[in-house]
Amino acid sequence: MGNKTSQSEFILLGLSDLTDSQIPVFLLILLIYVATLVGNLLIIFLVASDFHLQTPMYFSLGNLSALDILNSSISTSHLSFDMFTGNRLISYPTCISQVFFFTWFGSTEFFILDIMSYDRYVAICHPLHYTTMINIHLCAQIAFFSWLFRFVCCLVHVFCALRLAFPDPTIIPGLFCELYQLIQLSCSDTYLNYFLLYFDAISFGAPGFVITMLSYIYIFKTILTIKITDGRRKAYSTCSSHLTVVFIFYGAGFFNYYQLKNKNSLAGRLISLFYAVITPLLNPIIYSLRNSDLKGALHKSLSRRGTMF
Predict the structure, then answer these.
(1) For the CA atoms of 178, 283, 303, 292, what is the dihedral angle to 10 degrees?
(2) Cα separation, 86 vs 97, whole angstroms
């Protein structure tokens, strides 16, 4: 048996099953990653440059786009390298770094989605008190706290993971290193790790999900009381994009971490691929297609640059 001091590298299973399609799949993942970068950077640029988009909702959307870029970069970089070179080895420090950043960015994204849910709740259920109940400064403070709080929590998880010993060789049946998988593969006593993991999920993950669902229950109850068709349609359009992203994010996360018991299956790894690589691309697509404010800001930005030339 190896331990954490002698364990220098792991073997990532990745998409090694697709032996005859490595290069086409590599090119597809690379294309998705480039599209993810372009789409989310465009949203960040529009939110930062257009005065009309400097509101709590779009500030949170900018945070969401930044997290999507970071998450996609962490999950895609090593996977693409492995597929291109055929090298399945990942060093212990790189694996631990992946665990930390992927957990940090992913868990922070849940908090940002919660903030956006509350913003939509106030905007639709209490429109007359919107400016007094929520503003961009409050949103910035909550977002900063979310990033910092999840940073500290993930440091605790990683420090506890550093004490784990692993068999030699250790084959990780996934596309990248994830905290839950490392705990499962360890040959040490993992009681503390599981306790922290479930305590974190129950104390912070579950309440956030409940808050989001309750927000939308009240939102839809309010929308149904609106008698004017145009008003009802406008109210629905202000939250439909975010609700779509919430269902995709929570749904993909649920299947990735709870439904798939056998991570050795190719289907399980494809679900992980969807969660980590494709979901960050869907967010800018959904918001750009369903949001007239973003499309208007993009049109104005292109028009301004057109007049410069």
Answers:
(1) -160
(2) 21
Instruction: Decide if 270 contacts 29 (C-beta within 8 A).
Output: no
Query: Which tens digits make up the pLDDT trace of 139-159?
Result: 899 999 999 999 999 999 999
Residue numbers in the chain where pLDDT is lower than 70: 1-7, 16-20, 229-231, 234-235, 238, 253, 255-268, 288-291, 304-309
Q: Which domain holds residue 197?
A: 35-72+102-164+189-308
**How far is residue 221's CA from residue 9's CA, in Å, rounded to a whole number?**
53
> Rounded to a whole number, what is the distance in angstroms from the first to the last CA of the chain?
66
Q: 167 by DSSP, 3-state: which?
A: coil
Which two tokens mark 240?
């439909």
Q: Do the domain assignments include residue 234?
A: yes
Residue 106 φ/ψ region, left for φ over 0, alpha for ψ in the -120 to 50 degree band, beta for the rest: alpha
Angstrom distance (rounded) from CA 80 to CA 105: 20
Query: Looking at residue 130, which CATH number applies to its domain?
Result: 1.20.1070.10
Contact 281, 32 (CB under 8 A): yes
Burial pattern 50-87, b for ≥16 Cβ within 10 A else e, equals beebebbbbbbbbbbbbbbbbbbebbbebbbebbeeee
Distance between CA 256 and CA 252 in Å, rounded?
Answer: 6
Domain total of the chain: 1
* Distance, CA of 252 to CA of 302 (rounded, Å): 34
Token pair 């989605």 is found at 113
Answer whether 300's CB lies under 8 Å from 202's CB: no
pTM score over 0.90: no
Exposed, middle or buried by CB within 10 Å (0-12, 13-18, 19+), for 14? buried
Question: CB pairs under 8 A, 24+ apart, for 64-67?
Answer: 64/109, 64/112, 64/113, 64/116, 64/245, 64/283, 65/40, 65/41, 65/283, 65/284, 66/40, 67/105, 67/108, 67/109, 67/112
pLDDT in tens, 218-270: 888 888 887 776 667 766 776 777 778 788 777 776 766 654 455 556 666 77
